[in-house]
Amino acid sequence: MPKVTYALPDGTTHTLDVPCGQSVMDGSVRNNLPGIVAECGGSCSCATCHVFVDEGGACFDEPTDEERDLLEYAEGARPDSRLSCQLILSDACEHVRVTVPDTNG
Q1: The pTM is what?
Q2: E strands within the chain?
Q3: Where does the 2Fe-2S ferredoxin-type domain lie (predicted)?
């Protein structure tokens, strides 16, 4: 099962097992971690699940045009920015590390 490490805005880190087929956002929300607000519930329409992909990002599909458009307006967006609702875990994702910026929501 893939492991996702979440580096949170308060400086803490949490490493969780997140099943294949779920998103990085799902792992955070289902475990009540702060920082990923996910106002739209994962439908790629709000950017309140913005994260920086620190490690393991090669296992994810490239961002869609819709995701790229939303990231243009995300506060603090960088080249390693992604929407965590679009980061679907698979067997190729052994370990992923993301940083949750202090700007979501």
Answers
A1: 0.94
A2: 3-7, 13-17, 50-55, 81-83, 95-99
A3: 2-104
Work out the burial of residue 44: count CB atoms within 10 Å of its CB; fewer than 13 is exposed, 13-18 middle, 19 or more buried: middle
Backbone angles phi, psi at 3, to 5 degrees: -110, 135
Buried b / exposed e across 67-93, counting CB within 10 Å, b at 16+? beebbeebeebeeebbbbbbbbbeeeb
8 Å CB contact between 88 and 21:
yes
* pLDDT value at residue 105: 59
Give the separation between CA 36 and CA 75, rounded to whole angstroms: 14
Output the six-digit token pair for 105. 């929501």
Tokens of 29: 């929300």
Check if CATH label 1.20.1070.10 holds for domain 3-99. Answer: no
Residue with tokens 């994260």: 51
Residues in the chain: 105
Of 88, 93, 98, 52, nearest in space to 71 by CA? 52
